[in-house]
Amino acid sequence: MTTAAAALPLLGLRITAGPVELRGVTDDLLGPMAQLAIDGIHDPDFMPFATPWSLAPAEDLPRSMAQFHWGSRSRFTVEKWSADLAAFYEGELVGSQGISTSDYLVTRTGETGSWLARKFQGRGIGTAMRKVMCAFVFDHLDAESITSAAYDDNPASLGVSRKVGYTENGTERRNRMGKPVTLVRLLLEPGDFKRYEHPLTVEGLSEFRRSIGLDADGR
Ligand SMILES: CC(C)(COP(=O)(O)OP(=O)(O)OC[C@H]1O[C@@H](n2cnc3c(N)ncnc32)[C@H](O)[C@@H]1OP(=O)(O)O)[C@@H](O)C(=O)NCCC(=O)NCCS
Q1: What pLDDT, in 10s, does the model give residues 42-100?
Q2: Per residue in 47-74, is it b (16+ CB within 10 Å) or e — as a string?
Q3: Under a CB-based contact definition with an 8 Å cutoff, are residues 67 and 33 in contact?
Q4: 185 lines ligand 1 (CB under 6 A)
Q5: N or C end of the chain: which has fewer CB within 10 A?
Q6: From the alpha carbon of 116, which atom of ligand 1 is closest?
Q7: 153 phi/psi in degrees, rounded to 5
């Protein structure tokens, strides 16, 4: 049967490692992911994201969540692709773990980004899902480095990066909702990577690799 994953292999990607599963965001997951965001990701007076999407009124979040993923699907190209995956822990949807790239065939790097519904935070799940994404990108997509970034007042995100092995790679002054804030840039190189204790199993890998231009022309 031809499925949506035939058009966009991202949708058929399924990465599992112990209790963690990262899966392409098919349409059936959009509503449940919006519900997690409605339930709450952070305090209203603290903004961890560059785009303050999580402050949208509850009635608008299902549409904005869906449009974010549909938009990202529609813009998916070899030159510029993102894989914002649904994250499950012990079978329960908990949030999202993503990676964004630009000219990946040349740069062999990508930037990780993630969020968890508040009730799942502070239990090591953010560290586990980031380790799974980094192992996937290094071991299965032939990456040579991975970056991340977090505002300097986000100890949870910086804590995950430290535990996974990223090192600080400079700071930038940014505008966060009209106020200045320091963004800490982070870099993970393969030799510094602190791996997850569970091995990865990947479904849909060969299709996904082809969709990002790997395995074509002997690359
Ligand atoms: C950032 C996020 C994904 C981290 O996931 P998490 O599961 O909460 O983090 P972990 O439990 O794996 O914690 C990682 C480390 O950070 C530390 N940490 C976590 N929350 C912390 C907090 N509020 N204050 C201080 N340290 C904290 C933990 O202690 C842990 O280190 P330790 O094991 O040495 O104690 C999650 O908190 C989240 O979704 N936050 C809101 C959205 C967000 O900030 N996204 C990232 C934008 S850059």
Answers
A1: 999 999 999 999 999 999 999 999 999 999 999 999 999 999 999 999 999 999 999 99
A2: bbeeeebbebeeeebbeebbebbeebbe
A3: no
A4: no
A5: N
A6: 39
A7: -105, 25
pLDDT of residue 1: 64
Backbone angles phi, psi at 73, to 5 degrees: -60, -45
Residue type, 37: A
Is the whole model's pTM more than 0.85, yes or no? yes
123 Cβ inside 6 Å of ligand 1 = yes
Distance from the alpha carbon of residue 217 to the mean position of ligand 1, in angstroms:
41
What tokens does 42 get? 């952070």
Ligand 1 atom at minimal distance to the Cα of residue 123: 11
Report the residue count for the chain: 219
Count CB atoms within 10 A of the CB of residue 45: 5
Confidence of residue 216 (pLDDT cuts 50, 70, 90): confident
